[in-house]
Amino acid sequence: MDLIIKPISISGAEVLPLIEGGKGIAISDGASSGAWAAEGGVGTFSAVNPHVPGEEHLSFPSSYQSRTRVKRHAEMIERAIAGGIAQAKIAYETACGRGRIHMNVLWEMGGVDAVLNGILSKVQHMIHGVTCGAGMPFRLADICARYGIKYYPIVSSARAFNILWKRAYSRVSDWLGGVVYEDPWLAGGHNGLSTNENENAPEPPAPRVQNLRDLMRSYGISDLVPIFIAGGIWHLSEWEQFIGNPDLGAVAFQFGTRPLLTVESPIPIAWKKALFSLKKGDVSLNRFSPTGFPSSAVNNAFLQKLHARSVRQVSCETLVTSTHTEPLLISRAGGATVAGQQVFIKKADMEVVARFEAEGFTVPMLTPSRTVVFVSLDELADIEEERTQCVGCLSACNFSGWRQDESMPAHQLDPRSFCIQKSLQQIAINGDVDNALMFCGHQGYRFAEDPFYEGGYIPTVKELVARIRTGM
């Protein structure tokens, strides 16, 4: 397999077509990405809440000093820039001039333009590329071109890239470094599953990648501009049809899940140990994220609680209809809702509501889906506290109602969602694998089955890359 995995040109250098995927909330940092680049591949650190050295153990929300959401948002951007600069330097120094260093951002994260400009203006000579997904990053090309850095949009279909190309990238084509195809059924974290795609009917990646390459060719994009294949990558021997395939042009392989379990990986040891206990099916798609995007995570106690809450809901209407005749008082305000608002539910659901209340779920809260969800007083207290602690980590949050663009109208908050900033920091800092969101790719169960990790072995990045190069 070593003879087949030949170097290709990525971000201006001949490197191994092996990419460390950039995972947010400091899950891929300068140390892990620098070590990956040092082995001749492409290391990717995250600029989504990157840690500032010396502040790695600061918990949320006590680490934020400002009292208002607007000021906390500005504080978050300031810290993200400082952390991104620090992690870029660590990656650059660790790589020692080998491989390539990329930075990853989420387009829908709060203050993405400011964070990108703030980091790149200081360390553009240390960073060779920027990957970006979770939304439609139209301005990514212009920002990267300003600093002479290649850009790599993350898409889940040719259709998504077509929109990006027509609207923005065709004007800045010289700085397109490659396109990341992220499989929406296999990748961990947020994914680009569209509304017309069935989450229970995964499509094979080969024709989707081929469609992407064919589209790129139709726009005159060279076959040397690589497609990074992401999501579901474990053994390269399982992807031989993609390697050296002239129909696909240059391809590289992006690993998101396997780099979690390395010595250099910054995730807490409790998280690393939990990966060994995963079984097939433990990772599933869910739609609870406040971003509005579906995501893949471990079905732990945290996710089960959200599932249970979502089940406790009935349909409602704001006016009496032929089907919704029974009044229900909403006692708590939220978003466009005012305290004391009355809605109407079906008579048949009155018995269901009585059962919810008997079980201790006595507080009805409106959702954006014309339903009422019922929560306990303890859940209500948690929801209200988390909303008051909002730092504006997203450009728009369905849970807290934060909108970076203040001109956007008020909207109905969704109590079926959660504070993603708090949850992801809870696992990244405290290693709380039961009561926080645990992102993972759908191949995570293979840690327990792969003989490379026998006995709970945790390899170094050097050992992992060497193993990957054997095809296993």
Description of the structure:
- With 472 residues, this protein is of the alpha/beta class.
- It folds into two domains: 8-267 and 449-469, Aldolase class I (TIM Barrel); 302-430, no CATH class.
- Helix content is 29%, strand content 17%.
- The chain has helices at residues 30-38, 69-95, 112-123, 140-146, 158-167, 205-218, 269-275, 301-311, 350-358, 377-388, 420-430, 461-469, and strands at residues 8-10, 13-15, 18-20, 42-46, 100-106, 129-133, 150-155, 179-182, 189-190, 227-230, 251-255, 283-286, 295-298, 313-315, 324-330, 341-346, 363-366, 371-375.
- The strands form five sheets. Strands 3-11-10-8-7-6-5-4 form an eight-stranded parallel β-sheet.
- Strand 5 (100-106), helix 3 (112-123) and strand 6 form a beta-alpha-beta unit.
- Helix 1 (30-38) packs parallel to helix 2 (69-95).
- The longest helix has 27 residues, at 69-95.
- The relative contact order is 0.14.
Summarize the structure.
The protein is of the alpha/beta class. 29% of the residues lie in helices and 17% in strands.
Structure characteristics:
472 residues, alpha/beta, TIM Barrel, 2 domains, eight-stranded parallel beta sheet, three-stranded antiparallel beta sheet, 12 helices, 29% helix, 17% strand
